[in-house]
Amino acid sequence: MKDFSKADWVDPSLNWTPLPVSPLPERVIIDYATKCNLRCPMCPVWGSEEEGAIDAVTGIMPPAAVMKVLDQLAPARPMVQPSLYGEPLLIPDLRQRIRDMKERGMAVAMNTNGLTLTEDLANFFVESGVDSVFFSIDAVEPATYHEIRGVDQLPKVEAAVHRMLKVRGDRDTPRVGVSLTLQDANRDQEAAFVAKWSGVVDCVRVGLILEDGVIKGIDVPAERTPCPALYKTMPIHNDGTVTICCLDGFRTSVVGNVAETSVEEVWQGEEFAKVRYYHETGQYDKVPFCKDCQGWAQYDYQEEVRDGLLIRKSAEFTYYNRIDRLKNWQPQLRGGHELGLVGTEMAPKAEPAAV
Ligand code: SF4
Ligand code: SF4
Hints:
Blueprint: E1 27-30, E2 33-34, H1 51-57, E3 59-60, H2 63-73, E4 79-81, H3 94-103, E5 107-112, H4 119-128, E6 132-136, H5 142-149, H6 154-168, E7 175-182, H7 190-197, E8 203-208, E9 210-211, E10 214-215, H8 229-232, E11 233-236, E12 241-243, E13 254-257, H9 263-267, H10 270-280, H11 288-291, E14 302-306, E15 309-313, E16 317-322
Parallel strand pairs: 1-4, 1-11, 4-5, 5-6, 6-7, 7-8
Antiparallel strand pairs: 2-3, 8-16, 9-10, 12-13, 14-15, 15-16
Helix pairs in contact: 4-6
Bound molecules: iron/sulfur cluster (2 copies).
One iron/sulfur cluster binds next to loops.
């Protein structure tokens, strides 16, 4: 880890002792293809009314650029999510891209709208060892799905979840989950959504919506602490740009570009170090993108065991995990989340996924 404690942007009176930073990130979000078959109004990118701004970030990462990034990341065997503001099933030559990641020992975790998941592709996910597939559904009522996603496709995505489950069967992977992003349109359906899918899929995720740069309805501790995302996650956009945070779809908080330098140089670089310094010294107003964000509180989980489920709740997310399927939530997939049940009889008998 480079030592920036004497840099000219450091105020010596604050006696800053930098927190440790791993040589490479443990979770990487790579926007292989910023393209989507939906235009969800809630989407930070595709929900924008500024077509020019969307056009400016749309694009495909060239395979050679992806391979360079994967080769540099390989020693860390991180979890890779192959989409940021794109639908991952639309990545050109998706199967080869997945093989590229699995051959390098990475855990592959996808968040998809599920609309183009065929049985053949579901089979490929099983055979290639894809570690996790989460379907964004957001509703139990078709009219609500339409309001949130802009299309009448609730039965289609629900069928895709069941297709994935059927093809996967009793095998460990992929871990299959569904998610609901809580907002005014579906607030009354949260309980029904959890009841409908708990025990069916391996995990149900409920999260709060990001609106106008704030996470709506989040209740955070009084004392702010440095955001764990800065130490765990690297978001890489399709042109190699790295931003502070995955919430920055329009790339306003750039800290480097892996196409121009390297993953390690950006992750360990001065721009990222400055952001961490401002967080660690409580100068949040010096980081405009983080200044008003409450996402820093999302990593502190309380756990409860109920009805065969391990329920993990933070200020932003609640996960309803089937205890009998926890084995597939292996360490590489946790993205830095600590599992409090480790050491108890509830703990998954976790082994790293075969690679
Ligand atoms: S499916 Fe995802 S990436 Fe596509 S518009 Fe909706 S929220 Fe955005
Ligand atoms: S504070 Fe918010 S914007 Fe900043 S890195 Fe954390 S989650 Fe992202």
